[in-house]
């Protein structure tokens, strides 16, 4: 059964359910092919850049491979089936967080958008995104 994909900005914001996932995540990069190979199935996300392969790793994997643990990130999944050609969800979320001084790194996957924020700001980010969701629902009514 295929889930209904949402494309409209206001509908995506109104339909999102920001959910804080357990764990501490780290954005890491390497040019070491052996490290990339060993972590490819464990990395939450992988992206090839000119400078190296970027990996989003859980703390245990980052630590085991000697990556910096200086910037622990929390993961928030928006829990809305946003379409790949949907417009405005990333901008709405990033702007709302930026307006409150919260940096974020967005990763849009096939069905859900993921927001990574500094670990110490995660609860505040959830509060802000929940407010955005409620305001979008009220606007649609």
Quick structural gist:
The protein has helices spanning 9-15, 33-39, 59-64, 89-98, 122-140; strands at 19-30, 45-49, 52-58, 73-77, 105-108, 113-118.
Describe the structure.
- With 141 residues, the protein is α+β, with helices and mostly antiparallel strands.
- Helix content is 35%, strand content 28%.
- It has helices at 9-15, 33-39, 59-64, 89-98, 122-140, and strands at 19-30, 45-49, 52-58, 73-77, 105-108, 113-118.
- The protein has a 6-stranded antiparallel β-sheet with strand order 2-3-1-4-6-5.
Helices, strands, pairings?
Blueprint: H1 9-15, E1 19-30, H2 33-39, E2 45-49, E3 52-58, H3 59-64, E4 73-77, H4 89-98, E5 105-108, E6 113-118, H5 122-140
Antiparallel strand pairs: 1-3, 1-4, 2-3, 4-6, 5-6
Helix pairs in contact: 1-5, 4-5
Percent of sequence in beta strands: 25-35%
- Please provide the count of β strands: 6
Number of helices: 5
Distance between the terminal alpha carbons, to the nearest Å? 28 Å
Radius of gyration over C-alpha positions, nearest whole angstrom: 16 Å
**Shape, please?**
globular
Helical residues, percent: 25-40%
Element order: H for helix, E for strand: HEHEEHEHEEH
- In the predicted model, the low-confidence regions spanning at least 5 consecutive residues are none
Structural class, by secondary structure, is alpha+beta
Strand order in the sheet with the most strands: 2-3-1-4-6-5
């Amino acid at each position: 059964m295929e889930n209904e994909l949402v494309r409209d900005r206001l509908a995506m914001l109104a339909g999102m359910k920001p959910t804080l996932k357990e764990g501490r995540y780290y954005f890491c990069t390497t040019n070491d092919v052996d490290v990339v190979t060993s972590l490819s199935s464990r990395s939450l996300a992988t992206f090839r850049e000119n400078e190296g392969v970027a990996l989003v790793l859980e703390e245990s994997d980052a630590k085991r491979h000697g990556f910096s643990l200086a910037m622990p990130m929390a993961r928030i999944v928006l829990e809305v089936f946003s379409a790949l050609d949907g417009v405005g969800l990333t901008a709405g979320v990033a702007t709302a967080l930026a307006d409150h001084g919260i940096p974020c790194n967005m990763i849009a996957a096939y069905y859900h958008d993921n927001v990574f924020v500094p670990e110490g700001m995660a609860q505040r980010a959830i509060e802000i995104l929940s407010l955005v969701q409620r305001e979008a629902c009220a606007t649609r009514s």
